[in-house]
Design a protein that fits this description.
two-stranded antiparallel sheet, alpha/beta, Rossmann fold, 4-stranded parallel beta sheet, 189 residues, globular
């Protein structure tokens, strides 16, 4: 029975609009009701100066010291695009190396997911929630750890896959980030 329920939840979360609504409700709950938005305090000087504010305003635009993004659509200060659907492009690259049936056994790190949309999209596609780790400079979510991609707090050889879509541009020291990613990736022969 548990298997069928898990399968049904995954199928529902594959639908962008449903996943987006679910993520919106979670942001509303964690940010508006519980006031759980937190920021990483030790942001590296290797990080572009407006990274935190620029990305945070896409999720929850309260007390952000930047102008509202010109294309951003909001409801109650919460971004209306939280589904992580751009990650589908990264999933296509993963399919070149792994079979979908292997996803449940792979450990994956998402760097800079902003919201939980990317995490729930990975889950919907077959990755186990307990095998998905995420790190960002801000978080409202118990699924996203506060941290800096320039100094990842994970052991060497931990992850089969590291996703870092659309975040490398925020680094002033890309070599350092790539060395960190290489360090936490499992070495394959």
């Amino acid at each position: 029975m548990k298997f069928l329920l898990d399968l049904a939840i995954r199928k529902v979360l594959l639908i962008d609009q449903i996943r987006n609504f679910y993520c919106f409700c979670r942001v509303f709950y964690f940010c508006k009701i519980l006031n759980k938005m937190k920021e990483f305090e030790n942001v590296s000087e290797d990080t572009w100066k407006n990274t935190l504010a620029s990305n945070k305003r896409a999720v929850y635009n309260k007390n952000i010291d930047l102008p509202k993004h010109p294309n951003a659509k909001r409801f109650f200060d919460i971004g209306k695009t939280l589904d992580g659907s751009k990650t589908k492009w990264l999933l296509e690259a993963i399919e070149y190396k792994y079979e979908k049936s292997d996803y449940k056994n792979l450990k994956i790190l998402s760097i800079g997911p902003r919201s939980e949309g990317e995490i729930f999209l990975l889950y919907a596609n077959g990755f186990k929630l307990q095998n998905i780790s995420a790190v960002d400079l801000f978080s409202y979510s118990p699924l996203i750890t506060l941290g800096d991609m320039h100094s990842l707090k994970y052991k060497e050889n931990t992850f089969d896959i590291v996703l870092m879509g659309w975040c490398l541009a925020y680094s002033n020291n890309k070599k350092k980030v790539l060395l960190e990613v290489n360090r936490v990736l499992k070495k394959t022969s």
